Amino acid sequence: MASTYSEIRQSVLERYPSGQTPGGVSVDDIVQLKIQNTYDTHLDIARDMAKVMREDMAAYDADPSRFTQSLGCWSGFHAQQMIKAVKRQRGTAKGTYVYLSGWMVAGLRNTWGHLPDQSMHEKTAVVDLVQEIYTSLRQADEVALNDLFKTLAAARKEGDEVAEKKAIAEIDNFESHVVPIIADIDAGFGNEHATYLLAKELIKAGACCLQIENQVSDAKQCGHQDGKVTVPREDFIEKLRACRLAFEELGVDEGVIVARTDSLGAGLTQKVPVSQEPGDLASEYIKWLKTEPITEENPARDGDLVLAQDGGYVKPVRLPNGLFAFKENTGRERVIEDCISSLKQGGADLLWIETATPDVTEIASMVEEIRKEVPNAKLTYNNSPSFNWTLNLRKQVRAQWIEEGMISPDQYPDSTQLMSAELDDTDLGREADKRLRDFQYDIATRAGVFHNLITLPTFHLTAKGMDELSKGYFGEDRMLAYVATIQREEIRRGISAVKHQHEVGSDLGDTFKEMVGGDRALKAGGTKNTMNQFEAA
Question: pTM of this prediction?
């Protein structure tokens, strides 16, 4: 908050020395509403949150243990409850962001039903979700501040100056629920101009950080599926520049761009770029193409594309759909080159390397190579639900222990049987769980990961939660299923949503009615409100 309660009140009093407007509105009510309105526009949010991210990035450079985290949210309510939970647990939401997943927009937020992550959802759905999330976070501010102002009013009514000063101090030191959003813009939803136009709308909705990937826009696939097709680096750099121009035009000078590469799992490209000179970005991309030598037995035919290479001529391997294949096992090298060009030529701020498994050593080895060219290179990493985390980590532990001679190969199964619940309370199960607990810290300190996120947690949380509730409610437990698994836990954990009327602004409405109507206000929060049963909670 730029100004304190006392400063704002004094400013309003200078306009209305009597303490009221000519229409009878109280100065104190004006002050409350001014403070509850934590941001005038969502573009203001983008500007402020970009500064927050930059400060967090600088803090991480000084101390890699100070990494940041987010969860992917597909509604404003999910984001709101996440931030409330973090504030309740830690006392602050600093270092916590919201991730806006294109996968979940496609799967849950578009008007054409549940769609795969292939950029088939409406562009406006992404913008709408950013807008919705910030509306929800700002409403959380309003509800919390309204409660503080009720405490202030009660203290004044009782003539308790100590309680009054304490309430004012809490208002002045209030930490907003508004945090940075990393917004997934997929592959840009079209050409570079389309990317720029969408980027502007996302920024105006409040996004301070845009994440864009190097796949072909009209052939985009989820990063954890097959069939990924990447674009030449010059094409990707133009889209990075489009995002930067959008930030600059709108005055979000510190806006953050995350350049994602899917090259580790992508074996195809849509076009062969034009190389102007040896060693340029095009030639560095072309060198990885899978080719066939042109010989008498394999001559160039009508319609073939021919490349001059190493003093001879070759044909790139072309599939029936016109796509070109890369050489096998070149993904790692392409990733490193992608990242360096995105940082040095594209002006990206953070990298995202999509991997097939969660392997700290693999990620660290690529970052080590990138940092030879760009020493302060930092990553955002997808702790993806597409990984079978239990299986992967148990496999890693088993393989390491066998190599170190700690166990024999027949001591634990080398298959999906590693998922067995019987292994949970074994040395291997416990060690794998320890590594899961430490995973984000390890990739932050060993592999340059500034931001850890989970893309789809609220998708899976909703599925699991509805399955758990439905199993009990429609089974033998009926009401006990709801009470035991949800309501009691809300009360005992101090989750404010247990008072659901208050959570969605019922008290805000009562306060406003009092502001304009005084004793005539028809309020919902009287003695007959059943939410009073949760007052102790």
Answer: 0.92
